[in-house]
Amino acid sequence: NAGVMQNPRHLVRRRGQEARLRCSPMKGHSHVYWYRQLPEEGLKFMVYLQKENIIDESGMPKERFSAEFPKEGPSILRIQQVVRGDSAAYFCATARDVYNEQFFGPGTRLTVL
Amino acid sequence: AQTVTQSQPEMSVQEAETVTLSCTYDTSESDYYLFWYKQPPSRQMILVIRQEAYKQQNATENRFSVNFQKAAKSFSLKISDSQLGDAAMYFCAYRILNAGNNRKLIWGLGTSLAVNP
Q1: Residue B54 burial by CB count (10 A; 0-12/13-18/19+): exposed, middle or buried?
Q2: What pLDDT is stored for residue B43 in this prediction?
Q3: Can you name the residues that pair with A11 across neighbouring β-strands?
Q4: Interface test mutation site (partner A, options B6, B32, B104, B109, max chain A beta carbons within 10 A)
Q5: What confidence tens digit (pLDDT) does each residue in B77-107 have?
Q6: Interface membership of B43 toward A (CB under 8 Å)
């Protein structure tokens, strides 16, 4: 009965490279939320997805960031041409449906050199 | 604006003593959930306790309890008999029930709790 899984746990990228963060929901969960935690701050909502659909991406930066949750496989948060300001912890949370509790993964810590 | 304010960036408590962490929030909605999450050095986000806004009774979970004052939009966390393992960042958050299909969490900036032996 695995919980929410995220990989990698730590990711180091140089400026200009791409970062791909993966989130595997708990069994039976089809709703995925991505949050970003900048140093010394709380979490900020980025995007909410259901299988194959982006429901709300109002928290995503307009450029360089994208997210997907395909029919098969994990949800992926993709950051193109990373900059130092992208350094943060990225958490995904998954839920069975809109009414149920969100369960958090361990996060991916992205460091941009 | 939907905001959560945690006015205490840092707190400390002696082991076995009681500590209260403050949280206020601002929302125009009437139906929502309130949460306290714990984030230890491992960075894993752990749910401590939650409260449904429509319930008047304060939630309790073992040594953790809340003081929910809906009119004042206040949601404080009380930790009784503090243990060394309680040392962590504590985040207050709320989730609106009626925001279309998005139940995103709105977060405070956190309170860092130190437990002194």
Answers
A1: exposed
A2: 84
A3: A110
A4: B104
A5: 999 999 999 999 999 999 887 666 677 899 9
A6: yes
